[in-house]
Amino acid sequence: MRRKASLILLAVAVFFTALSPLLRWYAFPRLAKVPPSQYQDTVLVAEPATLVDYSTMKAKKVPRLTVVQTLKGDVAASDRIERTADRDVVVWDALTYVAGPDGKMVSQIPERYIFDAHSQEPVHATGESVDGDAVRRDGIEYKWPFLVEKRDYSYYDPQTRASAPIHYKGTRTFHGLEVYYFEQTIPWTKVPLPKKLPVKGITAESVRKMGTTRWYTTKRMFWVDPVTGAPVNGEEIHQEELRGGDLLPGGGKVTAFAGHVKMRPDYVEAVVALVSSQRTLVLLLTSYLPWGFLTLGAALLALSLTLEARSRRPRPIGPTPAARPVVSGGP
After folding, report:
1. Considering the chain, what is the average pLDDT of its residues?
2. Do the beta carbons of residue 18 and residue 46 sit within 8 Å?
3. DSSP conformation letters of 267-286
């Protein structure tokens, strides 16, 4: 019986030991993915901020400026691209909408971002764009890969239509979570004017014809959950200027927008709660179950070997009973 039990335990130990790396290296890349139908919106505010008054072409202080970022998955487009990409693809239609203190539009920039559902690497396909302009991204945007590393990444900037390093600056604690802090600084760069401007009769094309250009710089900051790769907080010290041309008297420059943009506190709390629940699922596939199965396999193997050793142990031999004397009868 001990021999049979040890063989059964050995088989179960091999099963769990083999299952451990399969979960981590085979199941995890196939199960941990951004869903193609994901929808989320985030509200950020700058209090106070500086905006240009297009009626006077002078900068003015405003008490509050609101930035709404929306990400909406296009499932039909994902399915179409997957047929030729040979991998799971997510297509996000993103919109960054900036509103002034009166709620009116200051600027809006739509994007179509196409990426690998697991690795977050860009997937280049028809439709990849920023503000209607075709682009070819190099680097991540909006989200880091699962299991973030303590290193610099290439992060895509939609204003400059180019990627630049975003630097790992250390590990911090944010709302009870251990997060990685990243920073990216974009120096003053000439960037395209938004296709849609807030003033009737003024278009990006008419401004360009007047010789006026738009310049931009920003310091971008992210607090990223290292397990899911999702930012739990984001801030940006943002500045834009209009320079030269007939639009500005004397060919000078004016601040078009400046402010320290921060995620609204209620959205921070909601994102932290969502990420906290998602990180448990990722840890199950990458840590809890693989290490648990490996430990269980080792324990079962030890028990199997113990039973096998006991089954092979020779039984103790007792004393041989004395032979009875044979009594022969005579006549």
Report:
1. 87
2. no
3. HHHHHHHHHHHHHHHHHIII
Model confidence pLDDT, tens digit, residues 15-38: 777 777 777 778 888 888 999 999
Q: How many C-alpha atoms does 219 have within 13 Å on its Cβ side?
A: 4
Query: What is the value of pTM for the model shown?
Result: 0.84
238: buried, middle or exposed (CB in 10 Å: 19+, 13-18, 0-12)? buried
Q: Helices 2-22 and 289-312: crossing angle, nearest 10°?
A: 160
Neighbours of 123 (CB within 10 A): 21
Task: Please give the share of the chain, as a percent, with pLDDT higher than 90.
Answer: 61
Residue corresponding to tokens 């091999």 = 14
**Is there a contact between 37 and 89 (Cβ–Cβ < 8 Å)?**
no
Helix, strand, or coil (residue 262)? strand
Q: Where are the strands (E) in the chain, listed by range?
A: 39-53, 58-62, 65-73, 89-99, 105-116, 129-130, 133-134, 153-157, 162-174, 177-191, 213-224, 231-243, 253-263
Residue 135 confidence (pLDDT): 96
